[in-house]
Specification:
single chain, 295 residues, alpha/beta, Rossmann fold, eight-stranded mixed β-sheet, two-stranded antiparallel ribbon, 9 helices
């Protein structure tokens, strides 16, 4: 059920004085003069626009008739910015500027722009839409509601939580002493089981300043998701997610106002948008037909 690759165009746009890199996918049946609804595709923690989840999303949504923009956040992929400096509110700013760019295109209907985020990008999409009314709808796959509770569940054992807490304290002390940020390993910030690590390729970020987990610790999209209504939200999560615990998706749904749907799926993992799963494809297709049809 893989969608046929769509015509692509590399683009750049400005975000806080930085040049961000993106790729626009055009539906094969688009004709000059048409304005199609737009989709901004947001990657996960330290990822990039060329990941399998982002390529799948862009090709699939374009096949359904949408103009799609997949983008590298600042400091990631081919975008400018400090490498690995992943800060949630800076990514919110990048997402708002991606909306601005997509809405400015003559082939996009600026009143109909959907945000599709995976993992970290899912939570950023929720926050952005709560603040920016130009986002007409949101699909959030694999996100969380409360940064501290997420971290505590990811580092669930007493030993793991002590190790994570000690890392944060070393980071605070190092910055206070030197003025510089302590760099830490990706998997010390977000543990990922060995069998899922092939989903994270070598173009991804593997070293982050400790400022990243400190800022993420206090990033709580569940506090703002209700502000998206009455615009529709789809929350998707693997029921047995081994990267971002499923409780965060349930919290998001409980905090949201209608219309909001929560889909918990078995037989998929945290990277479900890269699996070409026919059940995922069908559910997203049907939700779009109901809430954000291309025509």
């Amino acid at each position: 059920m893989t969608a046929v690759p769509s015509p692509q165009q590399p683009v750049t746009f400005d975000s806080d004085g930085l040049r961000l890199s993106g790729v626009v996918h055009t539906p094969a049946d688009w004709r000059r003069g048409q304005k199609r609804p737009g989709v901004v595709i947001l990657h996960g923690f330290g990822g990039h626009k060329d990941g399998p989840q982002q390529r799948w999303s862009a090709n699939q949504f374009a096949a359904w008739g949408y103009m799609c923009l997949r983008v590298d956040y600042r400091g990631c992929g081919e975008s400018e910015g400090r490498r690995g400096w992943v800060m949630p509110m800076e990514q919110v700013a990048d997402t708002k500027n991606a909306i601005t760019y997509l809405a400015s295109r003559p082939d996009v209907d600026p009143a109909r722009i959907l945000l599709v985020g995976t993992s970290y990008g899912a939570s950023v999409a929720i926050w952005t839409a709560a603040e920016d009314g130009r986002a007409s709808a949101v699909i959030a796959q694999g996100g969380w509601a409360n940064g501290e509770r997420k971290a505590r569940e990811q580092h669930a054992s007493p030993q793991a939580w002590q190790k994570f807490s000690d890392m944060l304290e070393r980071g605070r002390a190092h910055k206070a002493k030197t003025g510089e940020s302590l760099m830490v390993d990706r998997y010390d910030v977000v543990p990922v089981p060995e069998h899922l690590r092939p989903n994270i390729d070598q173009r991804s970020i593997f070293r982050f300043p400790v400022d990243t987990p400190l800022e993420t610790f206090t990033f709580n999209p569940g506090d703002v998701i209700a502000g998206i209504a009455p615009r529709p939200v789809l929350i998707m999560h693997a029921a047995n997610d081994k990267v971002t615990p499923v409780n965060g998706a349930i919290e998001l749904f409980q905090a949201a106002k209608q219309p909001c749907e929560l889909l918990l799926m078995s037989d998929v993992d945290h990277f479900m948008f890269g699996e070409d799963n026919p059940r995922v494809i069908q559910y997203v297709h049907d939700w779009l037909a109901r809430y954000f049809a291309a025509s």
